[in-house]
Specification:
This protein is mainly α and 150 residues long. It has one domain. Helices cover 84% and strands 0% of the residues. It is elongated, with a radius of gyration of 19 Å. 25% of the residues are buried.
Length: 150
């Protein structure tokens, strides 16, 4: 039975667009960090700009890891590779990257308080991915058990 891959196709397109947005954030990282420091955080010292710039670039590295892993996961799904250990490995990578992004956002919270919101958002997303990963791992285990009984 062939499934409609429309949602997977659109998700892959969205993932590529988010990779492009992340690339733009890399290109204009210092400008973005200065804007946040000067306008939103109302901090005008060079150290704050440097710390926020470093946090932004570290977070974009994590974003690339998340987005590329997500693209691979979606590619597996479109190839009807669903309950597979490779997918749970990709979910663990995504969960780790989201947690790392959250930690960096938490550190950036000392420069701009709004980063703490991002910390909680990243940890919440990591929790959701971890929950889905556990469900997939359980399904794989049940599938393997059923394969042995047939």
């Amino acid at each position: 039975m062939k499934y409609d891959n429309g949602i997977i196709r659109w998700s892959k397109i969205a993932t590529v667009l988010f990779i492009a947005v992340t690339a733009v954030a890399d290109i204009f990282g210092v400008v973005i960090a200065r804007y946040i420091c000067y306008i939103w955080a109302e901090k005008f010292d060079t150290l704050s700009v440097v710390l926020l710039s470093a946090a932004l670039y570290l977070d974009t590295v994590g974003a690339y890891v998340v987005l590329i892993s997500l693209f691979k996961l979606l590619s597996n799904m479109s190839s009807d590779i669903v309950f597979d250990r490779a997918n749970t490995k990709l979910m663990k990578i995504i969960m780790g990257a989201l947690t790392a992004i959250g930690v960096v956002c938490g550190a950036a919270g000392f420069v701009w308080f709004g980063s703490f919101f991002l910390l909680f958002a990243m940890l919440f997303m990591a929790l959701i991915v971890a929950s889905v990963e556990v469900v997939f791992a359980k399904a794989i285990s049940m599938k393997e058990e059923m394969d042995l009984t047939i």
